[in-house]
Amino acid sequence: MQFSEILSSIDQVGDDFQATVTDNWLQGRATFGGLVAAVGNEAMRKLVPRDRPLRSLQTTFVGPAGAGIWRLRARVLRVGRAVTLAQCEVLDGDQVVALQVGVYGMDRESAVLVKPAAVEPPRKVEDINEIRYSPDRFPAFVQHFALRYAMGAKPFTSTHSPTKVFIRHRDPAPLTESAIVGLVDCIPTPALSMYKAPAPGSSLVWMLEFFEHDLEFAPDAWWRIDSDIDAATSGYVNQTGLLHDPNGRPVALSRQLFAIFG
Questions:
Q1: pTM
Q2: CATH number at residue 161
């Protein structure tokens, strides 16, 4: 199934929702975390009007989610004049695999206006070779994304440097808010570049914050995520990413806590 087909598969069953996920989205024994977060956001969007843009999505990955039918237990926690808070539990069978809180808020006037400065990449996307997917080298989910490294070390090269990676869906369906949620998570943590050989890692907590909401781009347009490690101690990695839209404008901040093994 394509990314858009999985989101379209979300149906209401009683008081909950359910989604069908295929095994071509696996990342080791678990499903790709960006898809888990996007499915949960889409379930909450069934309850929250679209005129309240996504401001913050916090996802705690409780356990591995396998392929199959997931149950999505979404509910609205509070509705204010401008902001709605919602919660979603993603369940694989009887096991909670993710807990989410979404914050959706309308624009309001403010005297405070601060935006990150746009930074030009060292190379243009059309001058960079695309990472070629191979099932014996990459997790299954990678086949659904196109990646081109403008800067930084690739995984398992025994080096460390900040990365700037152009990214896009291979799915030709129109972009949606939840599609961008999934897109942000498609690159590997820069920590993997410090290994000499493949080693497992697992995302524990992911916070994604949007400050721009223009998604009117072609499905094959290239976005860019700039990412670096803030700290790495005792087998845990803290990292920050900045998402740029196809016009080069910064639009979202990503912060993640990873557990790494080895």
A1: 0.94
A2: 2.40.160.210
